[in-house]
């Protein structure tokens, strides 16, 4: 506990380029941007594959292999090749980290929808796109959100390694503290990241409450 | 970077023993935590299915642990387990594996159809034998799907340990970075992906071997698909559930 008081109690940690607010903002920026890009790639692709069934096996297999891509290795390699001129070196590995869970969950969510529901929707005269938008996506939404949440938590936690190659974010405290043997700095940084991850978890629980139709989530009893 | 090529093949030839040692280290540090996670997840999952009220709190705790960044946990553990020891890296990895495997075990046991359970009871199976001979075998596909995700992530997560001095193949990343030399980094990435894919394939084979009936079923499904959607539905549904729930990883607990 003393470490935490040392870290959070030090006014020097609250302002300037090394201050908590700025590091926090950097961390949020890396996380938010890479999640957004990953979602823009993975959600439409997952919907398309789940809906049409085309290329499913290849995509799921490669998504599984992509889970194995080590973020630290990619990051180091990209920085070595491109330099640290922009955010791209940190965004590429984080997007690679976030795409597989989002893609696989979106695909499985759509594919797992009760075929009766799908048939009923077609029977009511909806066309392909309408079936997807009005029936399949709402029913699959819990799984899609779960994929996004898993990705978000992994990205928040993994964005810390960006500091290793001299980029910003909350990982700075962890890496700098480790390098200079300032344990309070390290523990403080770790706690901040954990808090952020928990906040993300809470945020997604909230989104789930608001966005998922009560009929799907089972909160409303069906007669 | 200048003229430095992405990969210098002679480096690989010159560093064979080092690479072999790191591969072995990586395998041990990735697989032991997954095994430990599985050994804890099985009884915990059984208990959670038997006593429902247990599941929410356990899943909650496991979820919180899962959201902790591995680097942070490594560092918090340093004073206890020591710098550059395998334990420092393996303890958090075991928790991550548990976070993926616990929901998989619970969902797997939940996927046992009620009529199958009742048939077993009617045939006079004792609870223990019912568990071993009926429920666990039926749960295998879901548990193994979780095991695949846990194993693949574990193989790759080990590399972060390089930042605290013990990361298996991750050592090649920090080494390459410090010397501004891309070859070890490329070798490390390729080997980690290769290890993960091999482990994944082995688990698929194990699943085939443990559940020969599922192969027969998917073959039937492929034939009936499209022609008679309605009849294929139960299989399709359960398959969707299997894959869907297990790939989702942790977090099933608060989904409702």
TrEMBL record, chain A:
Q: Sorted alphabetically, which InterPro entries does this protein's record hold?
A: ABC_transp_perm/SBD, MetI-like, MetI-like_sf
Asked if the record carries the keyword Transmembrane helix, the reply is yes
What Gene Ontology terms describe where this protein resides (cellular component)?
A: plasma membrane
Q: Which regions span the lipid bilayer?
A: 28-49, 56-84, 131-149, 155-175, 187-207
Q: Where in the cell is it found?
A: Cell membrane; Membrane
Per its UniProt record, what Pfam families does this chain match? BPD_transp_1 (PF00528)
Recite the UniProt keywords alphabetically: Membrane, Transmembrane, Transmembrane helix, Transport
Limits of the ABC transmembrane type-1 domain: 24-204
- Please give the Gene3D superfamilies that the UniProt record associates with this protein: MetI-like
| Topology in membrane | Multi-pass membrane protein
Domain of life from the UniProt record: Bacteria
Output the GO biological process annotations, alphabetical, semicolon-separated.
glycine betaine transport; transmembrane transport
UniProt lists the family membership as follows: Belongs to the binding-protein-dependent transport system permease family.
Protein name as catalogued:
ABC transporter permease
Q: Which organism is it from?
A: Planobispora rosea
The organism's taxonomy opens as: Bacteria, Bacillati, Actinomycetota, Actinomycetes, Streptosporangiales
Automatic annotation (TrEMBL), chain B:
Residue intervals passing through the bilayer: 27-49, 61-83, 89-109, 138-165, 185-206
Gene Ontology CC entries for this record? plasma membrane
Region Disordered, residue ranges: 230-256
The yes or no answer to whether the keyword Membrane is present is yes
Question: Which Pfam families has this protein been placed in?
Answer: BPD_transp_1 (PF00528)
> GO annotations under biological process?
glycine betaine transport; transmembrane transport
Residue ranges occupied by any ABC transmembrane type-1 domain in the UniProt entry: 23-202
Keywords per UniProt: Membrane, Transmembrane, Transmembrane helix, Transport
**Record's keyword annotation contains Transmembrane helix:** yes
Q: Where would one find coiled-coil regions in this protein?
A: none
Instruction: Give the membrane topology.
Output: Multi-pass membrane protein
| Ranges of Low complexity composition bias in the record | 230-249
Q: Where in or outside the cell?
A: Cell membrane; Membrane
Q: Which family does it belong to?
A: Belongs to the binding-protein-dependent transport system permease family.
PANTHER family xrefs: GLYCINE BETAINE/L-PROLINE TRANSPORT SYSTEM PERMEASE PROTEIN PROW, OSMOPROTECTANT IMPORT PERMEASE PROTEIN OSMW
Name of the molecule in the record: ABC transporter permease
In its UniProt entry, the species of origin is given as: Planobispora rosea
